[in-house]
Description:
By secondary structure, chain A is of the alpha/beta class.
Amino acid sequence: MPDIAFPFSAIVGQEALKDALLVSAIDPNLGGVLAFGDRGTGKTTMIRSLAALLPVQSVVKDCQFRCDADRPAKLCEACQGLSKEGTLKSVQETPPVIDLPLGATEDRVLGAIDLERALGRGEIVFEAGLLAAAHRGFLYVDEVNLLDDHLVDILLDAAASGVNRIEREGLSLSHAADFVLIGSGNPEEGELRPQLLDRFGVFVEVSTPRDVASRVEIIKRRQAFDEDPEGFAKSWKRKDAALRKRIVTARERRPEVVASDEILERCATLCLSLGSDGLRGELALIRTATGFAALAGKEQVETAHLRRAAPLALSHRLRKDPLDETKAIARVERAVEDVLGS
Amino acid sequence: MNVIGPWDRALLCGVLSMARPDVFGGILIRAAQGPVLSNWLRQVESFDLEASRMLMVPASVGPDRLQASLSVARSLSEGRAIYQTGLLEEAAGRVMVVNGVERIANDVAALLASGLDQANGIKAGHIAFIGVDESFDGENSIPGILAERLAFRADLHGLRANDLNGIVYSREDPRRIRASMSAVSIDEAALTTIAAACLSLGIRSMQVPIFCMHAARGLAALKSRSTVDEDDIAVACQLVLPGRAHPMPETEAPPPQHEDLSKSDPDQSSSEPGQSETDGANEAGNGLETQIIEAVTSAPIMLDGAPKKGRRQDRSGVSGRSGENVIALDRGRPDRPLKSQSGRGRIDVLATLRAASPMQAARQRASGQNGLHIRKSDLRIKRFRRRKQSSVIFIVDASGSAAMHRMAEAKGAVERLLSQCYSRRDLVSLIAFSGEEASVMLPPSRSLVRARRQISDLAGGGATPLAHALVEAYKLARAERDRGRTPFLVFLTDGRGNITLDGTADRAASHDQVSNLGRTLIKGQFPAVFFDTSRRPDPRTRRLSDDLGAQYQFLPNADGDTVSKIVRQRIGTR
Lengths: 342, 574
Ligand SMILES: [Zn+2]
């Protein structure tokens, strides 16, 4: 595994996961992606590829909160000091992808007192955790279904609010933690509580291709990449650059994209017909559809965008009927056909 | 085709892993402790190009020991925080061996996996990981998150010290592979054979064929060739695929993916093969593919990937609804530390230091003494969370005329329980009995997906081995209790056993045996509910239920909805 990321455009298949990641890159506050299914589908590769594709960020040098050097109003206390002195230095970095392994402690995730300085010099200094490290990037949790519920709660809170608040051990502080949460898991190893499911913005069922030709293509590209990462990346550079441009434009365009009353009504009808609980589904549906509209360069959300967004935004929010073996995604697709026409 | 013996296989796994730990991750090897394993480990150590000592790690290793952590003893004696390097850090550039890898906890497996990713994702300091699976039956599964990162599977069971002959390798072999592997090419036909073999074996992960591809190239490099031949592919598959075969459920027929690959070609498309070429390759590879599948499926099987037993969920760190946990001071998973009132329990040193640290400067000033000042009020004790986790065991009569209906209703009840039990994290298992045996159809599981897949509502018919069922139920309930769960038995039968444990078809003898077994094995030991599915209530069945110490319910149509409701009530009120 070399330092160069596998080109995003060279990833074979996995369209739903690509969609989910792209729309999260355009709208980081969508609430995270939950990818359930087979192992060995290259989820991690895909996240790293996407991060490498995104524009570099201007980060204050050595700041543990990854402050944005271009936004003086949002600097942390230490960086504000540097800024006043005029000694603030910035560096350009690709958005971070941080792994949160099962077994990581709460201290490690949230951050904690820097013990060395506290014991040695009696200073209370905060040592940032993984949430700070993932700021302005991605936080990847494999086996999120096996993670302690209270940790998942913390992650989802931070992902939704963009802030990590700490109140313990004589510490009282908060810092920005704006990241896209990506959880993955294998349903055979246990399911996620519905309360937690619902809080993920979008849901994807991942599986590896079942036809030999696609599989051979995947292996070939991986081999070519492993042999000569630079050369391989170069051969896909144009495609990746075009996609980067689309993402950047879509990010700028997204706040301007409007959804007509008619579209909003269709959203509501769709959610009602699926009996998907709560307002979250509706909000996620409209946000996801808005992301797709922005990505397509449109000014208005269209039915086609809703159609593409519905399985991502709704299939994890259906009430479970143990006797209905129909896959959730198929149920959503059926409802989409009924409500939006085929 | 070249079918290789277990010793050769194990050695080749070692040679390839030492050549490119960054590509292969390592080896999962099934072996008992003893001279054969020691011999193999010594040889692998001698292949190590860095010539460093192996790092031996016990399966009981805690998460805190893997990463750099505060060294409690030294911090206390020196009055400042002193960190101890983590084992993952110490393993950089070395071979890391975990003995009894089938026993490691999920969170440890996840930390190891993440550590391997980090170490092997950079230019130097790679870690070759060897997991020694010491289980005899291969019944315990290795956490998938770790297993999927290890390319090779080997098995030393049944080998004796004087079987260990064959090709001898030296450090020159991995050295040659490392130097020339990247120049070895592999053609479309070879890749097609590999991809098709993996698919036929039901292996979904894309990482597995990629391991095979690299292994085949490594083997070619070992023989100083620059192209992969059929032999390399066959041997590579025998090193990577055993134990990974996974029957694909019939209900999930592969959706044909007509993806137009050409549209996502790179900018400078150079050697994109035409469709006809792929077809030709497929034909040529067919014979080899069949041989590979035979060789792989006849090799001793070691399970990994999907969990086979409920054990994994048990260690998963998933807690139930917090209100239902009992905070205990002695055992269970660590919970957040508690401020000590009485000084009872084990001291959580790290939390204690944390609590004391903000006060150090003030206390040092006040006392005029340097060093660490700890007051009683700083003391924190470890709390453990003990779950009152239920394990519901269904014992279902699959004999007689109403068997099919009974199985279907039982399956429905299991699915309802599983889909309604998220927050409780209870487990459900199912034993079916008919003919001359009772067998565990669904081992304790929390997964709806698995329950659907594994419980077939096909009934066996034939005799009614109720005595066998009681013995199986007892064995499973005991095992569950040993795992710290509370078993709960659910019988669905008309209670008319007609075959004794020694296989004699004798209704009266069977009845006596069953009531004896019930009184000695079940009654007073395990709570139970007995659903009598006879057409008419029968006092004899009622007495049998009493012998089991079970709550009796007459339920002639064995309706799954009612069963799940009653069971839920019962486990909810305990
Ligand atoms: Zn800052």
